[in-house]
Amino acid sequence: MSGALLILAYKRPEVLRETVNALMLAEKSGINEVIVVIQGSDEEVLQIVKDITWMKCRIFKTEYSLRTSAKEAINRNLYTDLEIAFNNSRNDYAVVIEDDICVSRDFFNFIYSCYTKYKEDDYFRAINGFSLRPFYTFVATPS
C-alpha cells in the first residue's frame, strides 16, 4: 500500500515554509510521492516547493479568474490534486495538507495505521486531523 501527499498552496510562503519543514521531519510511512498544486504565480511559493528534494515531488500550477470564489478555487485545486494522485495506480490513498498545516513527526504513521486497519470497511471514508491550538505558531526546525 502506498499513498500520495497532496499539498494545496497559495500565496503564503511564510506558513508554507513551516509546513514543508514539518513534513520533511515527519516519518513518511506509506507515502511514495508529493503532489503540489499551487494557485497563482507566487515565485517564493514556487521556490519553496521546488526545494522539496527529500521525496519525489510533482508540481502543478492553477490560475482562476478574479470572479472565482475562494471556496470554488480550493475545491478545484483539491480535485486537481486528487485526480493526479489517483490517475496513478500506485496510490491507494491520499493525504491532503493545506499550506498552513504543520504535522507531527508521527502523523503519517497514524494515517497509515488507520488506513491499514479500516480500508476494508465500507463506511470508512477519511481520517481527519486538526489542531486544538488554532492560533499556535509552529516552527519546525531540522535537527
Distance N terminus to C terminus? Answer: 29 Å
Average pLDDT confidence is 88
Please describe the biggest sheet, giving its number of strands, its sense, and whether it closes into a barrel. 4 strands, parallel
- Whole-angstrom Rg: 15 Å
Query: Structural class of the helix and strand makeup?
Result: alpha/beta
Morphology: globular
Low-confidence stretches: none
Spatial strand sequence of the major β-sheet: 3-2-1-4
> How would you spell out the order of helices and strands?
EHEHEHEH
Q: DSSP strand (E) fraction?
A: 15-25%
Proportion of helical residues = 25-40%
**How many beta-strand segments?**
4
Number of continuous helical runs: 4
